[in-house]
Every structure is written in C-alpha cells, then in structure tokens.
C-alpha cells in the first residue's frame, strides 16, 4: 500500500502546485481594487481597478482612441483618462476593469486597457467541483481495488480444494 | 485469470500516467496561458472542464452501448463488469457536466438552469444511467441482472444522438457545435487547451473504467469464494 500512498501524495503535490500557479495568475492578472481602495491607498504601481462608469460622464475621442469618464466605487469616484484599444466597449453604467497607473500630479487614473468583470469565483467553483470529486472518486476506487485484491489473495489460503488443485 | 482483466492490469498504469500528464498540461494551459474571451472574459475558462466532462459522458455511454451488445452476444461476465463500470463512471462524468454547465450558465446566461434541449437531454442521459445502476443494485440474480441491464442500456442509447445533435436540431440558448462540417468556430488559442483537456479526460475515463472493472471483478470473485467457504461451513 505504500506505493499507492506515495503516488497519491505526488498527485496531491502537483495539484497544489497548479492551484498555486492559478492563484498567482489571479493575483497578477485578474485581482482588482475598487476605486475606494485605490483612493485610500494610492500606489504608483500598475493597478487594476473595477467599477461602474458613472452615467453621463463618458466622453470619447474616436480619432485618437481616447476617453474620459468617472469610475464609480461604493463611496468615491475615480476620474479616468483612458487611451488604448476598445474605446467602443466603454458604455455608461457598465462594470469594467481598467488597468493603468494613478497620476500623482493630476490625481487621475491613466488607463491603458479595459476588460470585462473577471468573475473568477465561478471559474474557481467550477474547477473545484470538477477536480476534487474526481480525485476523491478515483482515490476511493483505487483503495477499494487494493483492499479487495489483498482480501482475495488471503481468502485463497482457506481453500483446501484450490491448494489440492494446484498440486495436481 | 480472464484475458481482458490481464490486459487491463498490464495497461492501466500507462493510461493513468498519460491521463495525469495530459491533465496537468491541460490545466496549466486552461488556467494560466489561454486568453480570456472577448465577450465572456475569464468565465470562458469553465469551458475547458465542462466540455471534456460532456464529451466523456457521451463516450461512456457509447462504451456502455457497445459493451451491452457484446455481452448479449458473448455472455461474458467480465464484459458485464466492464459495462457496469462504464455506467458508474459515466454517471459521475454526466453529473460533472451538469454541475459545471450550471455554474457556467449563471454568468453567461444569467440563469443556473433552463429547460433547453441540450440540458434536458443531458439530464435524461443521467437519469438513464441512474436507472441502469439502480437496476443493478436491487437484483439478486446476477445473470438476469446483467441481461436486463444490457437491454436497458441498448434502449437508452436513443438519447445519445439527441444529446449530441440537439444544439443543431433545435435553435435554443445553448451554443451550436464548435467543431462541425461548417468548420471551426473557435480560435486555435482556445482549441488547443480544449483538445489537450479532452484527451486527458478520455484517458482518465479509460483508466477509471479499467480500475472499476477490476474492482467489480474482484468483488464477484470474493463473493464466489466466500460463498464456497460458507457452503463448506454448512457441510
């Protein structure tokens, strides 16, 4: 049985590593701040901010791919000066994630790219509900197989007619 | 020992190893390297687990159907064990398909469930498999049980083309086939991780069926041995 547990230990380790890589990717590319959080602790680093485009504040310059709007959080609003692709996807009252830097001079957010809501919670639940029961089901089956194999082998010892049959 | 069991014992480890490699690479591609969808964003990643679950549940039923015909022709009890194993594993994958599909449905369609043709026919497939497993659970005579179960599986096969082609036959909320005679409806960046995950799931299914078949075979063998010991004790 020891090789069985070693194999499962390795599998668990590899799965944990993938989970860790997935979590790292989430932190790096998906996790975002709210406008309130960013305004309370402004950072010069590249940041992702998620909020709602406040109605009536969106102005666009189609020729230069520039836009200006207020990103609404729970209590505060963040002025965003956006320059990049997909300005057409910007709409009033739409929830978006803007990636960029906060400008320390103008106190505005210089956005470089926009994306949709990450919804990573759904992805995580789907993967956990898919992978964990599969591993558990497989573990139980393999364990049962090993136990049955041992039981069948031991049961043979108590069959005098089978031993006689082998001698013949 | 039965030839099929010997063959399974020899190959099962290789299938398990190959499944592990494909799934690890596939999960890495699905969660880390593949891009988010233009419309759905990150939620599209659920597809890499939902579609393989769905494909594997169809494969499981196909194996069960062919195995049932084979059993009725040859009356081989190990083939019956294989069918029983495929049904159990198939039911598991169908539940996985319905659960992950429901989780994907909420952000994509804004509903956990709808009585769409694909979803309903997939649920019917699960009910057929459950009926098959229940029939096997509550019958005492093994020979009758195997024969009736094979007949149920053959009749239930009618649902398989309905599940597969439902998205083509009825225009409903579910998206049509991504790979069809019309060509490819998804980009290569999404298709490659999807293929890797699907191959991984097929290999995993094969491995699980092998393990479960051997498990059922040994269970019956032990039952037979215990039966013999009991009869000796009574003598």
How is this structure best described in words?
The complex is a heterodimer of chains A (168) and B (235). Chain A has 168 residues and is an alpha+beta fold. In chain A, 48% of the residues lie in helices and 23% in strands. Chain A has a five-stranded mixed barrel. With 235 residues, chain B is an all-alpha fold. In chain B, a hairpin with a 2-residue loop joins strand 1 and strand 2. The chains are: A alpha+beta (168), B mainly alpha (235). Chains A and B meet through helix 1 and helix 3 of A and helix 1, helix 2, helix 3 and helix 7 of B.
Overview in brief:
The complex is a heterodimer of chains A (168) and B (235). Chain A has helices at 2-30, 35-40, 120-156, 160-167, and strands spanning 47-53, 59-61, 66-72, 77-83, 95-102, 109-115.
> What characterizes the major β-sheet of chain A?
5 strands, mixed, barrel
- Residue stretches of chain B low in confidence (pLDDT < 50, at least 5 long) are none
**Low-confidence spans of chain A: pLDDT under 50, at least 5 residues?**
none
Order of helices and strands of chain B: HHHHHHEEH
Strand content of chain A: 15-25%
- The class by helix and strand makeup of chain B works out as mainly alpha
Roughly what is the average pLDDT of chain A, rounded to an integer?
82
| SS field, number of helical segments of chain A | 4
Structural class of chain A: alpha+beta
How far apart are the first and last residues' alpha carbons of chain A, in Å? 33 Å
Give the integer mean of the pLDDT values of chain B. 88
Instruction: Give me the side-by-side strand order of the main sheet of chain A.
Output: 1-3-4-6-5
Helix content of chain A: 40-55%
Q: Roughly what percent helix of chain B?
A: over 70%
Radius of gyration of chain B, in Å, reads 20 Å
Number of separate strands of chain A: 6
């Amino acid at each position: 049985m020891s090789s069985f547990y070693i194999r499962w230990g390795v599998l668990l380790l590899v799965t944990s590593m993938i989970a860790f890589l997935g979590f790292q990717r989430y932190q790096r590319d998906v996790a975002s701040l709210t406008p309130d959080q960013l305004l309370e602790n402004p950072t010069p680093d590249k940041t992702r901010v998620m909020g709602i485009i406040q109605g009536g504040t969106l102005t666009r310059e189609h020729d230069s791919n520039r836009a200006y709007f207020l990103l609404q959080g729970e209590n505060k609003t963040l002025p965003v000066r956006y320059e990049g692709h997909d300005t057409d996807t910007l709409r009033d009252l739409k929830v978006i994630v803007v990636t960029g830097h906060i400008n320390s001079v103008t106190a505005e957010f210089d956005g470089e790219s926009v994306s949709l809501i990450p919804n990573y919670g759904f992805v995580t639940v789907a993967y956990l509900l898919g992978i964990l029961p599969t591993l558990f089901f497989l573990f139980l089956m393999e364990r049962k197989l090993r136990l049955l194999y041992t039981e069948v082998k031991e049961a043979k010892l108590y069959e005098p007619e089978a031993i006689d049959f082998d001698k013949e | 020992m039965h030839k099929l069991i010997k063959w399974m014992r020899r190959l099962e480890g290789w299938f398990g190893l190959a499944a592990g490699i494909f799934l690890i690479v596939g999960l890495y591609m699905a969660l880390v390297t593949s891009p988010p969808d233009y419309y759905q964003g990150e939620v599209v990643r659920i597809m890499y687990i939902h579609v393989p679950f769905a494909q594997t549940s169809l494969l499981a039923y196909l194996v069960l159907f062919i195995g049932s015909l084979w059993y009725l022709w040859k009356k081989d009890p190990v083939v019956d064990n294989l069918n029983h194993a495929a049904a159990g594993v198939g039911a598991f994958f169908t539940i996985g398909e319905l659960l992950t599909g429901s989780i994907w449905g909420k952000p994509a369609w804004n509903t956990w469930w709808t009585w769409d043709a694909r979803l309903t026919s997939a649920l019917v497939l699960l009910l057929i498999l459950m009926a098959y497993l229940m029939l096997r659970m509550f019958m005492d005579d093994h020979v009758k049980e195997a024969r009736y179960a094979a007949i149920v599986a053959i009749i239930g096969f009618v649902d398989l083309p309905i599940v597969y082609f439902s998205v083509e036959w009825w225009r409903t909320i579910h998206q049509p086939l991504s790979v069809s005679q019309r060509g490819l409806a998804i980009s290569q960046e999404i298709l490659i991780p999807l293929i890797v995950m699907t191959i991984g799931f097929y290999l995993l299914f094969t491995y699980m069926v092998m393990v479960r078949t051997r498990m059922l075979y040994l269970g019956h063998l032990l039952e037979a041995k215990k039966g013999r010991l009991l009869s000796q004790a009574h003598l």
